[in-house]
Amino acid sequence: MSENMEHNHERRISLLEQANVETHRAMDAANKKLDLILAQTTRMAVLEEKHQAQQVDVSRAHDRVADLEAMVNMFAIETRAFIEQHKGRDKVLWALSGVVFGLLIKALFFASSHGMTP
Predict the structure, then answer these.
(1) What is the full DSSP assignment across the chain?
(2) Cα–Cα distance between 27 and 56 in angstroms, integer?
(3) N or C, fewer C-beta in 10 Å, the chain?
(4) pLDDT 10s digits, 89-99
(5) Are 108 and 114 contacting, i.e. CB atoms less than 8 angstroms apart?
(6) Gap between the Cα atoms of 78 and 20, Å rounded
(7) pLDDT (tens digit per residue) in 32-82
(8) CA distances from 113 to 105, 108, 110 (A)
C-alpha cells in the first residue's frame, strides 16, 4: 500500500509539474500578447500626441495665413489708391505738358511772324 501511495504521490507531483509547465507557457503567451498590446497602445499614444501637435501647428498656420491675407488685402487697397493717385497726377501732367507745348508752339509762331527768328 505504501508503494501505491508513493506511486500516487509521484503521479500527483508529475501532474502538478506538467500543469505548472503549461501554466508557465500560457503565462508566457499572455505576456507576449500583453507586450504587443502595450507596444500598440504606446504607438497610439505617440500618434495621438503627434496628431495634437499637428493640429496646433495647422491652427497656427491658418492664423498666419489669415494675417498675411489681411496684409495682402490692405496692401492691394493701398496700391489701388496709389495707382489712382498717379493716374490723376499723370493726367494733370499730360494736360500741363500739352498747355506748355501749345504755348511753346504759339511762342515760336509769334516769334517767326514778328521777325524774331535767328
Answers:
(1) -HHHHHHHHHHHHHHHHHHHHHHHHHHHHHHHHHHHHHHHHHHHHHHHHHHHHHHHHHHHHHHHHHHHHHHHHHHHHHHHHHHHHHHHHHHHHHHHHHHHHHHHHHHHHHHHHTT---
(2) 43
(3) C
(4) 888 888 889 89
(5) no
(6) 85
(7) 999 999 999 999 999 999 999 999 999 999 999 999 999 999 999 999 998
(8) 12, 8, 5
Handedness of CA 96, 102, 106, 108 (dihedral sign): positive
Residue 113 has pLDDT above 80, yes or no: no
Length of the chain: 118
Residue 88 CA to residue 83 CA, distance in Å, equals: 9
All three cell numbers of 47, joined, read 500618434
Give the model's pLDDT for residue 92.
85
The grid coordinates of residue 92 equal 494733370
Determine the Cα–Cα distance for residues 26 and 99; give it in Å rounded to an integer.
Answer: 107
